[in-house]
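re: ur question from earlier - yeah i can do the single chain one, its not a big deal. heres the input i used so u can compare w yours
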Amino acid sequence: HDISGGYIFTFNSLDRGRMHQIFLMIPVVFVTLIGVMNDAHSAQQDDAAGTARIRVYQEADITLYPGEYCYGSDSPAAIHAGAGFFSMLGLGDREGMPQTDDIPGSYSEYVIAAGKPLTVKLQWEGESNGVKASCGPVGSTFYPLPGRDYDVTIGYAGSCFVQVRELFEITQGKFGARPLPSTYSFACNTK
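and the output i got, formated as tokens:
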């Protein structure tokens, strides 16, 4: 017993043997953890290399068809990115994409496979002062590149179309978007 009221611990030879085993195991545990962390980091890099991100503006009913050259298939991978209640309130899915100056308040963001076709189907209906207007369905297919960011919305040039843009850094921390060439897509032949 020491004077401070604490106890002085002594180890017999059996305790020293256990302590020696524990001290020898510590480097093994650290090396194992480092290997696991490196594997996880490598897997994250591989995931990022195989994916892209896309922001869908909630101006129209938009569905994404990953891996498809046509729209309207019954693929379980299809993403209905249309204007839902929560996204209209600005509470849609977010994936941390950079902001552009022309971004509207309601949108959702998704991680998508890169290097494979992505078909976007767009449809819109509206009414103003008793006049009804509609667009679509129209479709467009493009190939997202790994690690890139895109946005999609309705475009109009005599008739409506799917407007796909690629985001790019203008200056440090400031991003813009440029139109991306894409191909017109048709409805899938579902029988």
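The CA atoms of residues 87 and 106 lie 6 Å apart. not sure if urs matches, ping me
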